[in-house]
Design brief:
There is one protein chain. The chain is elongated and about 75 Å long. The chain is mainly alpha-helical and 250 residues long. It has one domain: MetI-like fold, CATH 1.10.3720.10. The mean pLDDT is 86. Helix content is 84%, strand content 0%.
Length: 250
């Protein structure tokens, strides 16, 4: 039901956006060259639908892989960054400073060393969605749950693994929300990488359509991107709710 609900929301937003776009076209009398007609968009979808579906599936696969890498990396760095000692402080400072560099400035270096293939797209996707995950994980892992931890501390049974388990369990909803939200950034990162230099994926399709000034192709590509993003985010959210239900016994 969550997947159907999210898909309905996406379709509603997309249809409203298209309606506003075509309303502007009618009001201001823009030509089909600037804003394509509905028939032109449907024609592009029929002619290039299969090609675009393959491209967006390619992009989605890279985005999912990059998202998983970012989750693992943010968890590992967050475990170190939560510490009040110098390793934790150094890790936090390094993570914050690295995030200060815009991806468009770092991307040429990535493409120089890794080329314009899968490795670069994976790395850029992971970099873009990694930082919000890291901030949340550091905050969650470093924030004590005093009412629970106090008992184990008084009985001498507390250790860092139990401490992390308690804090993770108490903040499951936050963790699920952050992971779901960062999934969107993974898709954005992959598309940005493809738009900048890659030779495949839906970002590459959008770049070619932009050079051709073909808004109809871009609208079809945006529809497929939104559709795949909605499905992936719904899947993550469903898995997160299932894990929470198993842990809590609900």
């Amino acid at each position: 039901m969550k997947i159907l609900e999210r898909l309905f929301q996406f379709f509603s937003i997309y249809i409203v956006a298209l309606g506003l776009l075509w309303a502007v076209k009618i009001v201001y009398g823009f030509s089909d060259y600037l804003i394509p007609s509905p028939l032109e968009v449907l024609q592009i979808a029929r002619e290039n639908g299969l090609l675009y579906v393959k491209a967006v599936l390619n992009t989605s696969a890279v985005a999912v892989a990059g998202h998983m890498i970012a989750i693992v990396l943010a968890t590992a760095v967050g475990l170190v960054g939560r510490l009040n000692s110098w390793p934790g402080s150094l890790t936090r400072i390094a993570a914050y400073n690295l995030q200060a560099y815009p991806i468009v400035a770092v991307a040429p270096i990535i493409f120089l060393f890794f080329g314009d293939g899968l490795s670069s797209r994976l790395l850029i996707a992971a970099i873009i969605c990694y930082f919000p995950l890291l901030l949340s994980f550091i905050g969650i892992f470093a924030e004590p749950v005093e009412e629970v931890e106090h008992f184990y501390r008084m009985t001498g049974r507390i250790n860092w693994r139990l401490e992390l388990a308690i804090r993770t369990f108490e903040n499951l909803d936050k963790i699920i929300t952050v992971i779901v939200g960062s999934g969107t950034l993974a898709m954005v990162g992959t598309i940005v990488a493809e738009f900048l230099a890659a030779s495949q994926g839906i970002g590459y399709v959008i770049r070619k359509a932009l050079y051709q000034s073909n808004l109809a192709k871009i609208l079809v590509a945006l529809f497929l991107i939104g559709l795949c993003s909605s499905l992936y985010l719904s899947l993550i959210e469903t898995i997160g709710k299932w894990i929470k239900a198993r842990l809590t016994g609900e």
